């Protein structure tokens, strides 16, 4: 086995890549990186593992690659994937890529910022969030959820059409994250809630495996500890 995935299950794209690899039966060595211990911030980690000092990333023999969407496309080429998760058909692939590009300044950005400002940074610093700032982050996140509810899922059961794809995995992993901070994305959004259930069913048992820690923390209603 030559492919190594470095990840932390509290990282949204880490979960997405883990699920994608499992679903596509791509053999890999799972290398857990405990971000809470700060090992990724050392000079040794930067030199030896990942110059950006973040997860996820992969080592494929001597080849190193970060950025989760780039990794998906690399794996699709290297393993000659042609299925619903990342199709070769030009138009179907473009529809998947449309969401993967859109997410950077929407789902990915706003869910992560809300989670960080509401839960992570206060936990690390002991300082509560500024209410006015937190409300701005929450409003942006809610706007993204509404766009997924009313635009992306307006006419199709999945983000890129009638079949599930890696776009749905990436989106679902991001949308699950605010639950740790006590925010429930499903509330008042029946299409989004039903879609999350469909994605989970399509991606199980690996979806539940990747979200085991998150689900335990979410049950504590924003009172979870690292």
TrEMBL record:
GO BP, sorted A to Z: glutathione metabolic process
Record keywords: Cytoplasm, Transferase
CC annotations in GO: cytoplasm
Pfam families: GST_C, GST_N
Stretches assigned to the GST N-terminal domain: 1-83
Catalytic activity, reaction form: RX + glutathione = an S-substituted glutathione + a halide anion + H(+)
Subunit organization: Homodimer.
Protein name: glutathione transferase
Origin species: Tenebrio molitor
